[in-house]
Amino acid sequence: MPRDATSYVGRFAPSPTGPLHLGSLIAALASFLAARHRGGTWLVRMEDIDPPREEPGASGRILHSLQAHGLHWDGPVLYQSTRGAAYDTALDALGRVGHLFSCDCTRANMGPGGSCCGTCRNTGAATAPSALRVAVPAACRIDFDDVVQGAQSCALGRELPDFIVRRKDGLYAYQLAVVVDDEQQGITEIVRGSDLLESTARQIYLQQLLGCRTPDYMHVPVLTDGQGRKFSKQNHAPPLDDTAACDNLRSALHFLRQPQPGSDLDTPERLLRAATASWSPRHMPQSLSLDLPSRG
């Protein structure tokens, strides 16, 4: 059930793999408007737990772009790179009650979706390095309602079994870090791109094992190019021009099928106040991805 408006806490959690582009602005804007429309708190968390993929200086550029677009957050930015002790505590808790096992599978012999090949869970990994996985019962099913995508059901034990929570290289897995940090920050609704919809069942399962609250979820469509590819650094998405913040925000609102603020609103802050008042996720289609529609 939705929580009381006065307790709403949302967040935007980018990975510093490059500067913000229009696709990431869309996710940030949806999260920001959902929080501000409910009179709630909006936090920014930097998911910097994968150094090999990170771009030097990207964290600062992302924060600068958010501010240039009037997306001002509440409280200090949380950096996942400082949270190792919390992740270790969660792993210890899972291990004490037998939910973890070591896995030394290589990519060549992994099962569907990167699952364990099926022997490590019973025998334990005898060689190093090894990853840590969560044991998921075969009959485990996760059901939840998504504000935009509707009712969701995942046969987790069959479709995404025994997923990794700490990698072979010792880095913490996204699934673990996001659950621990959402609980620590008191997040009540997660608004993010639909490319992360598949992660939700795994995160809910971890929340259940760790005794964490399960937030509400809203997965908005992701922006694709003319070839149906998600806007991303890997697909050469151009970085945002921070000097064109109002135009960028209007494009993002158009993509989210939100009413366009008046043309006389010529600063990001004024434009966002109007967009906050008219925010409604009901206008968004359930499509997982969309090209940017023509503004005519």
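The record above closes out task 2.4. Task 2.5 opens with a second protein, given below.
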Amino acid sequence: MTAAPFMRALPFAVALALAACGGGGGGTDTSNNGTSSPSSADTAVSSGAISAFGSVFVNGHEFATGSARVMDDDTGDTAGRVSELEVGQVVDVEPSSSSTTAAPVAQWLHVHPLVRGYVDASDTTAGTITVMGQVVSLDSGTLFSDHRACVAATTNACTAVTDASGLVATTGGTPGTYATVDGYLFSSTAGSAQIVATLVSVRDVPTSYPAAFKAEGVVGATTVGGATAGVTIGGLAVDLDHATCRVDGKPVACATAFAAGEVVSVFSATAPALPATAFNATVAIERRHLPVQTAGQAVEFDGRVSASTPASGTMAATFVVRGVTVDTSQMPAGTSLPAVGDMVRVAGTVSADGLSVVATSIKITHAARSVSYALSGDVTAVAAGTVSGTFNVTVLGQTIVVSDQTRLSDRQTWQWMDDDPQSNPFNIATFQTYLAASASQHVAVKAAKDSSGVLQALSFAIWPASTFSEVAGPVDATPA
């Protein structure tokens, strides 16, 4: 087949940020007997990255979305559609009253990317980019999409951005690539990665969107230069003197609205001076580390571990994800704590303080210590895996396990981002039949070895047919 204009270059650039904390790994399940608590994460408020469609797959669960509505949490707009969402986007799923363990149903899907703005810097060694003063970690689980009009143009077409190498950093007063970043809050330490990216979506600069330039993160300070009201978020000094500030949905005086340690999102339709270190926000909203704060409410969320404290005396071991302290006191004796840098999925109940969670299930989805690989080539075999609901896929002679944790997408044509992902869903339930019927068997896979040395797929994308193959990863042996 003839590649679309944006495919004139490689269909998959496999340059990866293979930093130690950005690796992936197998799913070490430390829940009770490998399952969730009877309270069931299926009916909990669930926050995580979309891994597939068919309804919507989040945190390993398929939420029916026939009557679900999508809300932009920045503007309150509810005109969005499920068909406009994409794999890698982080959503908060609010279940409906009819949701059950066997058949979870979504009532609301809340979206609020953490950053929108120009890429001001890129560090290929550290595997990070800087957008709106926020240091963003790119790892083997980060996906990229390109929605610019030039990608679809038949003349003067541009090459789609498929990985970090396609991003352009700001130079002087010339803006870099405009992007929206979905992901998880990680660290509030100056100079370190504040965000772990699950999706970097390249777009044309919006002309009439009030949140076109945005940062969301932990407040480091509440005094900024000569501003009467202001906060710092990462490396961004935010002036709130002319902003509307809201806490719990109500307008409040900006001078006393926020405190250090709280999560706040700030935005405006107008770009800051570049590179972005200072920002005049028009709106500032207090956010929450957890999607729900009601004590006793079941909640499920994923993210990267930023701190870990072993048990001491009568105090149970704890660890921190998205700034949320996870209490392991209700986990079975001998439960292993995830390490700093591990990607985990936590299910549990909200504590009395509304800020921490008592875990009933902990699943290490990608271990920090694991080594990442990327392969681009044709699928030569597909077979049912040894674990129910998984598949063993052979690419370039390597067997890779695809599971319900793998982020699945079909990118055979440039129109993929405009297709309704629910009309012909590609998910773990349809995986083998969908791939067998695909016009192209050429795929791009990012994977990581688990503790048993088995390659587990983090993402799996079908690309246009090609004779080009590519592999990336650490050298583990040199030929004689």
